[in-house]
């Protein structure tokens, strides 16, 4: 008997419908001819190798550049080929049918600078920047090796030293393909140097001077960006204008995220810099507590004589259905960070001084005790000691200048029916990709978006039969923005959220890689990710790809423990055949539902 699940539309109301599982017709139909699913036509990559994925009827042989490639029992193949810099042509042949694949590898090696000049676009800063007095300001240029390089700033010459043993760190994704090693940069020729400005000043564009050769050739060139040293007594003020300002450790989207800053947060600006934001050059500002934020996410006010600072006198808590609201009255909304630990939740307020004499905190289902201390001048820290190791989510916002932290209570399971162990829980399933975003593609063209939706419906059915109220972010082949998927979680506040995916590797990976994996970001989701991974691997006998901490959009919501599941690899021919088999996907769905049940029962004891 089929169970029921509830569907949450992004803009619509909640409706209850019956699950109808549609067979994987496309995956079961034999591929009638040679098919290449990856790479697409005219593909470009910076990797030194690529894998070709495709399929053909099992009878006959497939060759690439006259070399036979191994295939699975059903005729699928995925083989790795090395790439040279420039164009690489692959002739794929099956019974006289030939497909030509051209892959262009961008020059992985850095182009050496001219023999008598600076390398193009190498003089720092590339964009305008500002720093505080007493702070290091660093300069850099690429030039011929064994040259004399210096930079003149405001009439002062600063020598730059050649960095002989520089290395380039691997991309973040290198951790996924076991190639997480730094690489030596191309030769020498990188020159660096730093200086400290003691007072506020507009230093203008630094002028670089190069002397190279014998007799020496001299070249002078100005950097594109200007340098300003800010006055500590005349700093601009930033106010966050978006719901959750994205704060980072540096001026660029490749820097790590900090706790999002609630709308209304105010702080002094202590630095400015042009940086990268997902491939676009954008202006960033550094707030006085250390976090960087896009200038477009704040409103900047000049001429404010007093920087945003506050005292904190009291704290109150109020229990409501499903959560405890903690309210801290402040004079102005200041920057904050929040960190989850084992049995603790630590809230840090910056530009804040404690004058606290009284805290009202009644006994409630979540917090056993609240401690506070003045960590340093201007930094106050509150430590919520929790009754359980498992945390169930929180929300952090400003109401005027009041900081409100909502701590979710553990779910109350309805234990009246042992056949419905998940009764009393809400579970959100997010089938990844959809619409114009196909995700990974299997050897025969079956897409990840299709596999994700099918698997999610199987899992929804299993969870519903165990008593959970199950919600899907999508029931059909439609595209949903990542921000909308996050909003669904935050609005619904499910007990847990699971994003359902099927894996593939970035360029440079090994298509033999296979296995089930889980991904988490916040500490509240780590236990669920680890438990599900270990349970499913043991229960199904599927190989393990691993458990990963990863900054993924669908793992970032803090309102619920959120985990992303990768059921297996679309890029692995043998594992793809399991993904394309309904009976095998049903086994996975049942195992994951059993794992969720066992974890939930243990976590709510």
UniProtKB/TrEMBL annotation:
CDD domains per UniProt: MurNAc-LAA
Annotated Gene3D superfamilies: Immunoglobulins, Zn-dependent exopeptidases
A GO molecular-function annotation: N-acetylmuramoyl-L-alanine amidase activity
GO biological process: peptidoglycan catabolic process
Keywords: Hydrolase
Sequence ranges assigned to domain MurNAc-LAA in this UniProt record: 486-597
Stored SUPFAM superfamilies: Zn-dependent exopeptidases (SSF53187)
GO cellular component labels: outer membrane-bounded periplasmic space
Protein name: N-acetylmuramoyl-L-alanine amidase
Organism of origin: Chamaesiphon minutus (strain ATCC 27169 / PCC 6605)
């Amino acid at each position: 008997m089929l169970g029921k699940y509830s569907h949450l539309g992004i803009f619509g109301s909640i409706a209850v419908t019956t699950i109808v599982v549609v067979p994987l017709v496309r995956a079961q139909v034999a591929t009638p001819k040679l098919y290449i699913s990856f790479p697409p036509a005219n593909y470009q990559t910076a990797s030194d190798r690529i894998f070709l994925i495709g399929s053909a009827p099992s009878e006959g042989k497939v060759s690439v550049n006259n070399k036979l490639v191994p295939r699975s029992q059903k005729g699928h193949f995925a083989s790795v080929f090395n790439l040279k810099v420039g164009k690489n042509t692959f002739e794929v042949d099956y019974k006289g049918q030939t497909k030509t694949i051209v892959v262009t590898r961008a020059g992985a090696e850095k182009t050496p600078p001219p023999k008598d000049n600076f390398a193009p676009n190498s003089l720092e800063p590339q964009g305008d920047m500002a720093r505080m007095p007493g702070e290091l300001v660093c300069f850099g240029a690429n030039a011929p090796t064994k040259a004399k390089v210096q930079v003149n700033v405001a009439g002062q010459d600063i020598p730059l030293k050649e960095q002989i043993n520089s290395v380039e760190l691997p991309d973040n994704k290198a951790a996924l393909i076991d190639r997480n090693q730094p690489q030596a940069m191309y030769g020498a020729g990188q020159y660096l140097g730093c200086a400290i400005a003691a007072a506020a000043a507009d230093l203008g564009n630094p002028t670089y001077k190069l002397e190279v050769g014998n007799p020496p050739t001299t070249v002078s060139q100005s950097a594109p960006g200007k340098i300003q040293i800010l006055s500590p007594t005349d700093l601009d003020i930033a106010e966050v204008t978006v719901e959750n300002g994205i704060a980072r450790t540096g001026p660029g989207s490749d820097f790590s995220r900090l706790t999002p800053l609630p709308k209304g947060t105010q702080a002094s600006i202590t630095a400015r810099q042009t940086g990268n934001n997902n491939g676009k050059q954008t202006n960033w500002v550094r707030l006085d507590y250390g976090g960087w934020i896009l200038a477009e996410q704040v409103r900047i006010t000049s001429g404010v004589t007093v920087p945003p600072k506050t005292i904190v006198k009291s704290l109150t808590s109020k229990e409501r259905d499903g959560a405890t609201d903690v309210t801290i009255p402040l004079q102005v909304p200041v920057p904050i960070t929040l960190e989850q630990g084992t049995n603790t939740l630590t809230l840090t307020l910056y530009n804040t001084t404690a004058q606290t004499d009284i805290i009202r905190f009644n006994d409630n289902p979540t917090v056993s005790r609240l401690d506070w201390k003045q960590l340093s001048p201007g930094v106050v820290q509150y430590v919520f000691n929790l009754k359980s190791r498992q945390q169930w989510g929180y929300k952090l916002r400003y109401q005027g200048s009041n900081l409100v932290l909502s701590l979710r209570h553990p779910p109350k399971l309805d234990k009246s029916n042992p056949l419905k162990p998940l009764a009393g829980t809400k579970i959100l399933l997010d089938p990844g990709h959809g619409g114009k975003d196909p995700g990974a593609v299997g050897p025969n063209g079956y897409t990840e978006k299709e596999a994700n939706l099918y698997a999610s419906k199987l899992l929804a059915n299993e969870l519903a039969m165990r008593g959970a109220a199950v919600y899907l972010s999508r029931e059909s082949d439609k595209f949903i923005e990542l921000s909308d998927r996050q909003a669904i979680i935050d609005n619904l506040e499910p007990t847990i959220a699971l994003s359902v995916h099927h894996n593939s590797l970035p360029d440079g990976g090994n298509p033999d890689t296979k296995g089930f994996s889980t991904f988490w970001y916040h500490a509240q989701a780590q236990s669920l990710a680890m438990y599900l991974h270990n349970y499913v691997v043991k229960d199904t006998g599927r190989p393990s790809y691993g458990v990963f901490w990863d900054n993924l959009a669908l793992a970032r919501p803090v309102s619920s423990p959120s985990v992303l599941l990768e059921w297996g690899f679309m890029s692995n021919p043998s594992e793809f055949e399991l993904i394309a088999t309904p009976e095998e996907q049903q086994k996975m769905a049942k195992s994951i539902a059993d794992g969720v049940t066992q974890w939930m029962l243990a976590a709510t004891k």
